[in-house]
Amino acid sequence: MSAGVADFFCREAQRLRYAARSAFKLLQIQKRHQIIRPGASVLDLGCAPGAWLQVACQSLGPLDKGGVVLGVDVKACLFHKVKAPADHCDERVKTVCADVMRLDSRFLLDHAQLEHGFSVVLSDMCPRVSGIGSKDTALSFELGFKALRLAVGGRFKLEPEGHGLLLPGGAIVIKLLEGEESQGLFKLCEGMFRSVVWTRPKATRSSSREIYLICKGLK
After folding, report:
1. CATH code for the structural domain at 22-218
2. Single GO molecular-function term (predicted)?
């Protein structure tokens, strides 16, 4: 089915008042891997239009469980503000408009009002597709690698200082386009997390090369 044709997940997103069909990707990841626990602190990179913010907030549990979701996206900068959807989001969801490629850890922690870090980092970032396979794969890797660097900080030899945004024992989900670069990122993560697996949610379009790297238990 072409990207322009409304499929089952598009119809379900409208019916259930999700901002996009991509909500079902995270719902399926969450059901299988239980990434987000009640009361978690979640960073959502590339959050627009907000479907993952909705699912993340729902996964925090009732308000009395606490938790926070911080969404970051550069697309909304033209409108000066990233807005969380009214449906399925509550006061625990915060947003900020910024370029992920130019962020630093302290900036994000301050906006989330956190002192130490996040228990979960989500990256559903995707480059502007050019149609040139190798170029798109490389751009996707660049975004995914940036998300990982923000998460783990000084665990990279090229970054001897900085603790990263992800708390010990935390998890990260990274969307990538399949290719040699994505396999390299998998091997890199194996040395830093207790569990590293690939998953392709059923909600992913059959024509898409998207695949998700699920890393749990930061050492």
Report:
1. 3.40.50.150
2. rRNA (uridine-2'-O-)-methyltransferase activity
